[in-house]
Amino acid sequence: MRQYALTQEQLDRWQGITILRKMAGDSYVIPTSLNGPDYLLRHPVQWLASRGWIDHGRQPVKWIYTSTPSGREHLTMFEQRYYEYLRMFDIYHAVDTATGKFAFSYRPFCTPKQWEALLGQERPGEPGQRRWIDLRPAVAAYKGMDPLEIVFMSFLNEGRFDNQLLGWQFALSSNELWDEIAQICNSVFYQEDLEQAGISLDAVITEGSKLVLERMQIEEEIRALGVPASPPLVDPAQATETYRTVTETTIVTEKVVYVPVTEYVVYVDNPIYVPPIFVNPWW
User: Fold this and answer.
1) How far apart are CA 169 and CA 181, in angstroms?
2) Alpha-carbon distance 189 to 209, whole Å?
3) Per-residue pLDDT of the chain (283 residues; tens, 9 = 90+)
4) Is the backbone peptide bond immediately before 275 cis, with ω within 30 degrees of 0?
5) DSSP designation for 66
6) If 0-12 CB within 10 Å is exposed, 13-18 middle and 19+ buried, where does residue 20 land?
7) Strand, coil or helix: 199
């Protein structure tokens, strides 16, 4: 059984990038006084400031934190990794290892309720045994990537840090979700576990890559016809972040569009291939 635990460096990094995403995508304003719920952000805010990723604003809004060019650059690099995760790794969220089926192949045909029911299915003839297995950490580890980061990205995608009752600041600063990320990585199947069950992770990755490529080709054909992209794939336009930058008189909106990698054929031919954006650290 593998054992993963978040380091303080990982915690600082992911708390910091979550705050930058809030400041950018949600236009959230963090006062330098850190009053109210924002008081819970004091450690990651200090970390961001120490890295030069945020700074005090200038007149007339000197009382708020704003992202710096360096902070926006690092956020852009992270968002490129996140975009790649959504495109190429989320497919392994639910795999039926007995049949080789991927739940995401059915998603375009499901309503939200049908999708929820599908994910809750049990194995035929095996009461209590879930049909679908989450192989995202296994695929990440097999490719030499960090399973913890992949699960963190899945939490972002699922809105796990958007606690409506206690506030996102509490969700970000408490240990509950961060401990859960480690627990997930320590409880899922990895290559050695699958091999003992006679399952080839190579084959799973190859089939998943083929499915993603087929979906991407369909999406490109749909776009060529001028029809909006369907929900299962992320439209590049949706990967646009809005940044608030402070001038001496106004708050200006600046958009940065992420350009996706377009060549994915190598995924099918090489299961251990790692996208270039994951090779170099974004921090």
Assistant:
1) 17
2) 19
3) 789 999 999 999 999 999 999 999 888 989 999 999 999 999 999 999 999 999 986 645 568 899 999 999 999 999 988 988 888 888 999 999 989 999 988 888 889 899 999 999 998 888 888 999 999 999 999 988 999 999 999 999 999 998 777 899 999 999 999 999 999 999 999 999 999 999 999 999 999 988 888 877 877 777 777 755 444 333 333 333 333 333 333 333 333 333 343 444 545 556 666 766 676 666 6
4) no
5) E
6) buried
7) coil
